[in-house]
Design goal:
The complex is a heterotrimer of chains A (379), B (187) and C (281).
Chain A lengths: L5 E4 H11 L4 E4 L6 H13 L3 E4 L3 H13 L4 E5 L1 H17 L3 E9 L5 E5 L4 H6 L8 E3 L4 H18 L2 E7 H4 L2 E4 L46 E3 L13 H16 L2 H4 L2 E4 L6 E4 L4 H14 L4 E6 L1 E3 L3 H8 L4 E6 L5 H9 L5 E5 L8 H12 L1
Chain B lengths: L1 E9 L4 H14 L3 E8 L7 E9 L13 E4 L2 H7 L8 E5 L13 E4 L1 H9 L5 H13 L4 H9 L7 H13 L3 H11 L1
Parallel strand pairs in B: 1-4, 4-5, 5-6
Antiparallel strand pairs in B: 1-3, 2-3
Helix pairs in contact in B: 1-4, 1-5, 3-4, 3-6, 4-6
Chain C lengths: L3 H6 L15 H17 L10 E5 L7 H4 L3 E4 L5 H11 L4 E7 H5 L3 H10 L3 E7 L2 E2 L5 E2 L23 H7 L4 E6 L3 H13 L4 E6 L3 H7 L5 H11 E3 H4 L4 H4 L3 E8 L5 H17 L1
Parallel strand pairs in C: 1-2, 1-3, 3-4, 4-8, 7-8, 9-10
Antiparallel strand pairs in C: 5-6, 7-10
Helix pairs in contact in C: 2-8
The chains are: A alpha/beta (379), B alpha/beta (187), C alpha/beta (281).
């Protein structure tokens, strides 16, 4: 039976999807263009027995989310550029202490206060390297309202599974757009719960990880385990260590838990690439203009397809490399000065020309500009 | 069939809500739609713009570049957005507004939207709903069920009667002949 | 040979602690442990040890969380109260104790302090207030008295100091008190009352830092600094019997604020009922 579509804003779909994923705690601070997420959580969470709190600032929001998560509750916060900058320190805490949570960044234009209501994708590199020190990152980016609903559920699933903060990299285009959405039934959704025991009984240390595994399975606070969490480099017992060997092993495991599970984590949308000469690489809201341009290019006989990382971090390097052989050229389109471009160049620039079309003045790249660029590239 | 619609006016007039209601009705009607808006820092009084695209086919690019329909409730918004209309576009404007140079009188349907909301419906703030009623009559977009569903989902409970009155008053502003001419101009 | 209390409530494997000889922090940490023991042993209260969460930030004080054998989380600088807020709202049945310092709680974390106080959320905050940034080597903090020396106040501190308990009270804390490293019995009792209080509690406990604050300011060693507390800080029973003249230059050790006001997570539970009733109708 086909379900009826409902009109939904991207930010709203983010909340509804998160609730479907089991999110029951939200802490945030109002910031355009993410504010509707906080407002919707304030309405919806109490209805499902969850908790919403408007904290005194962005730092506190991120801290409260981590606090809630250590008690076993799925937790989320949402923000935009300036707030995303402020959240970075505690985001790193979540990475090191392995506390699951989802951090939504509805990107807006410019550094500093910039253009608060205008679209951009300038936080792509910040999502990877925003917090200090080497750390693991998973970041997902939706291109439609429908995908926002599904993908935020995946964000929670990955976060719980790998015990790491997942960045949900939205942009103003998708966040403030309304579209018809068909909501899947609860029976159609896969919802992960975090592992809270390895059941081998051999080792009760909270950061214990069996041979061949990467993710610890400590129980939530309040269950009598009496363990310790710290932002200092720690050993398997959760206590600070001064040992470089122990710290090195911890940092390595944190990276490997992502690096050794790339097939599970990475998702890419490939569109009409099989016969394509040109691949357009894009992510998030930019996809909309790219898809329009591809329709027109195809209608004009040009062999153009799209390679869209849905998992934007880790960058789908192997997938792109596998696609290069049949291509003659790549065009990267982003609403920034060229950020994912750097990743594409790293992977592909030695083998074929990589060109760029970007915009960062707060306006949206129209499909006509992409089409024109494609024509120029074909020469 | 593809409508690229721009709704413009002054912040507080409810033009964003009007565009949302049109999109909501489109979903209820089983059409594809994308709705978005742009605004400045002012909550009230600043110029504001919202867009709804309607189509039977998949809609990719979500922004309107050259609209074929424009609603303008203030002179400032009419003057600003008259400039980048698609060829053959039609405009619905409040009758208090002057048609700017560059627009043909025949393109523009001037209707007493604000006066009707204030005097006939009894609340100026229903002007956006009056406009939705007039737009649906002029363009023949939605069946009654979809239209009412679109409105119902976006109004506070208990205000249904007032809003139905506004929808009807809006529709009554457009004669069958005007609607036919409007649609013909668009084709 | 560690005492029974230490065996029971401290993580012996992680002792000795990192604090300097003469530091007041160990005394205050013990006060917290004794207060918890009293509440666990009290048949009327029957505090469940497994439901106690100890939260700290960064600094000398904040190492205490790791030594205490409860669920414990040593967070980022200044954010202990914000982490604790998330823990408490998510699971209101948990007894959340925040161990923090003067810099952690009233400088970098000052915003969280005043807003947690304003919300009247049921946390118990114990400040290990030593008038200095000890872990980074003796810089002036928001409680360093005007005129005192610090590595970053080489010509004397021109800042005015905060009274943290008054600050919290001004922000709406419904239980505030002042204790000291010297006044062990009184301070333990104040911490016990703070934990029992339904609402936001803050016990500002004056510690001593002979290594940095004491040495920089010629206050003598730990003994002299504790002696100063003995002479200048007066428990409530005696303080209130003193004349105004006698009170000059003296600080109360005792409760400063104790009022009844709805606690945040209890109010949130009611909010959930309202929201569900509204959605259900």
């Amino acid at each position: 039976m086909s379900k009826k579509a409902v009109l939904m804003q991207g930010n709203e779909a983010c909340v509804e999807g998160a609730i479907a994923a089991g999110m029951r705690f939200y802490a945030g601070y109002p910031i355009t263009p993410s504010t509707e997420i906080a407002e919707q959580c304030a309405v919806r969470l109490p209805q499902v027995g969850g908790k919403f709190v408007q904290m005194e600032d962005e730092l506190a929001s991120m801290a409260a989310v981590l606090g809630a998560s250590v008690t076993g509750v799925k937790a989320m916060t949402a923000t935009s550029g300036p707030g995303f900058s402020l959240k970075q320190e505690n985001l790193g805490y979540g990475c090191l202490a392995e506390i699951p949570c989802v951090v939504v960044d509805v990107q807006r234009s410019g550094p500093s206060t910039g253009l608060p209501t205008s679209p951009a994708q300038g936080d792509y590199m910040q999502a990877r390297w925003g917090t200090h020190g080497d750390h693991p990152v998973i970041a997902l980016s939706p291109a439609s309202v429908q995908e926002t609903y599904r993908l935020i559920i995946r964000a929670f699933n990955l976060s719980e599974k790998y015990r790491t903060p997942v960045i949900f990299l939205m942009d103003e285009i998708v966040g403030h757009m309304r579209e018809g959405v068909v909501l899947p039934g609860a029976d159609e959704l896969i919802i992960n719960k975090r592992h809270i025991s390895y059941h081998d009984g051999a080792n009760k240390q909270c950061y214990y990880v069996p041979e061949g595994q990467y993710v610890p399975a400590m129980k939530p606070f309040g269950q009598g385990e009496r363990y310790n969490i710290t932002g200092l480099a720690h050993d398997v017992s959760g206590f600070p260590t001064g040992s470089n060997a122990v710290a090195g092993a911890l940092y390595t495991r944190l990276m490997e838990k992502i690096d050794h599970n790339l097939d599970d984590i990475i998702r890419v949308e490939e569109y009409m690439l099989d016969d394509a000469d040109t691949a357009v690489v894009c992510f998030g809201g930019t996809t909309r203009a790219v898809m329009s341009a591809i329709q027109e290019a195809r209608a004009a006989g040009m062999k153009v397809g799209m390679f869209r990382p849905v998992t934007v971090w880790p960058f789908p390097e192997a997938r792109l490399r596998a696609r290069i052989h049949g291509l003659k050229r790549i065009l990267v389109v982003e609403h920034n000065y060229g950020q994912m471009l750097l990743e594409v160049q790293r992977v592909a620039a030695e083998r074929l020309p990589v060109e760029f079309l970007g915009r960062f003045d707060g306006t949206v790249i129209p499909p006509a500009d992409i089409l024109q660029k494609l024509r120029e590239m074909e020469g | 069939m593809r409508y690229e619609m721009r709704f413009s006016g002054s912040g507080g007039q409810g033009v964003i809500l009007a565009s949302v209601i049109v999109a909501e009705a489109a979903v209820a009607q089983g059409l594809q739609t994308v709705q978005s808006q742009a605004y400045g820092p002012e909550a009230r009084g600043g110029m504001c713009k919202a867009e709804t695209i309607l189509s039977r086919d998949q809609i990719w690019f979500s922004k309107v570049i050259r609209p074929n329909f424009l609603l303008a409730l203030t002179q400032q918004s009419l003057d600003k957005f008259a400039g980048d209309l698609a060829e053959g576009a039609v405009v619905m404007a409040d009758s208090s507004l002057t048609v700017p140079a560059g627009l043909e009188e025949s393109q523009v349907l001037r209707l007493p939207i604000l006066d009707t909301a204030r005097d006939k419906v009894g609340k100026l703030m229903t002007a956006n709903i009056v406009a939705v009623g007039a737009i649906n009559k002029a363009l023949g977009l939605f069946g009654e069920e979809a239209l009412y569903e679109g409105v119902r989902r976006h109004i506070p409970a208990g205000t249904e009667e007032l809003n139905w009155k506004a929808l009807e008053a809006g529709a009554a502003l457009v004669s069958d002949e005007q609607a036919a001419a409007f649609r013909q101009s668009l084709d | 040979m560690p005492s029974e209390l230490i065996h029971k409530f401290m993580r012996i494997d992680h002792l000795p602690h990192i604090w300097c000889a003469g530091c007041g922090n160990g005394i205050i940490m013990r006060d917290v442990a004794v207060a918890l023991q009293e509440l666990i042993d009290d048949p009327e209260v029957n505090l469940n040890r497994g439901k106690v969460v100890v939260v700290s930030g960064i600094g000398c004080s904040s190492r205490a969380a790791g030594y205490m054998d409860f669920d414990s989380i040593h967070t980022t600088h200044g954010r202990a109260i914000a982490f604790a807020t998330g823990i408490k709202i998510a699971h209101p049945e948990l007894e959340v104790i925040v161990l923090t310092g003067d810099g952690d709680c009233s400088a970098i974390g000052g915003n969280h302090l005043i807003h947690a106080a304003r919300r009247n959320i049921g946390l118990t905050v114990v400040t290990f207030n030593n008038d200095i940034y000890g872990m980074t080597g003796g810089q002036y903090s928001p409680t360093t008295p005007t005129g005192d020396m610090a590595t970053t106040a080489p010509y004397g501190n021109i800042d005015r100091p905060f009274d943290i308990a008054q600050l919290a009270a001004g922000a709406g804390a419904t239980f505030t008190a002042r204790g000291s490293a010297y006044h062990v019995r009184e301070t333990t009792e104040l911490i016990r009352q703070g934990i029992m209080h339904k609402g936001f509690s803050l016990i500002d406990v004056y510690s001593v830092c002979p290594t940095y604050y004491g040495r920089k300011n010629h206050k003598g060693g730990a003994v002299e600094m504790l002696q100063w507390q003995k002479e200048h800080m007066v428990p409530a029973a005696r303080y209130y019997a003193m004349s105004e003249e006698e009170k000059k230059g003296k600080l109360l050790v005792g409760t400063l604020t104790h009022i009844d006001f709805p606690e945040y997570t209890a109010e949130y539970a009611k909010l959930i009922e309202r929201a569900q009733a509204k959605a259900g109708k």
